[in-house]
Amino acid sequence: MIEGVTVNTIKGITTLYNQDFKYYKNFKPIEWSDIETWGFKECNCATSDYINTYFNQERFYDNLEYMENANEVLDELRDHFNIKIVSMGYSPNLKGKDIWIKKNIPYAEFIGVNFKEYEDKSHIDMSGGILIDDSAGNLVTSNASVKICYGCTYLWNEDWQGKRCWNWYEIKNYLTNLID
Where are the beta strands (DSSP E) in the chain? Predict the structure, then answer.
């Protein structure tokens, strides 16, 4: 629950792409809201392998921004919930996330799931817990008691039929009602 849920990863990637490719012949600036594909195909000057290297770079983490209101809502929710961040990636990416989370959300426990070993988060026991994710695949395979699809509709979550919260205030309201 970090990329696309807690932090605006798409904006981080498009910012780096725009910096790196601005002098290329076929370059056109990409806004984060222009991205609709998992592999950032809209970033036409870069290969998907090149885009994936961004996830392992310190400058990517240095410029990450929270999704709107995520920081303040998480800070409030920690009084009622044990916050754990389960996120997928490869080893360098997971190390970067761990460092970023320890620095920025020190009250949260980070659980990294390596793509080399797992294709989703289903091996993490979330029974009795709440999963907030932007991937329908992770939501479907999880054993979490409460599952919330976060944010905009993308190809990777358009088939989700369960609860969807469009922003962090909706998450806060929904979860607050669960504890009342």
Answer: 84-89, 109-114, 130-133, 146-150, 163-165
Query: How far is C-alpha 114 from the chain's CA centre?
Result: 15
pTM: 0.88
List, for residues 53-94, the tens digit of each pLDDT value.
999 999 999 989 999 999 999 999 999 999 999 999 999 999
**3-class DSSP state for residue 155?**
coil
**Whole-angstrom Cα distance, residue 8 to residue 81?**
23
Q: Which domains does the chain have, with CATH numbers?
A: 9-62 (no CATH), 70-179 (3.40.50.1000)
Conformation bin of residue 109: beta by default, left when phi > 0, alpha when psi is -120 to 50: beta
Beta bridge partners of 147: 131
**If 0-12 CB within 10 Å is exposed, 13-18 middle and 19+ buried, where does residue 164 land?**
middle
Residue partners of 80: CB distance under 8 A and separation at least 6: 175, 176, 179
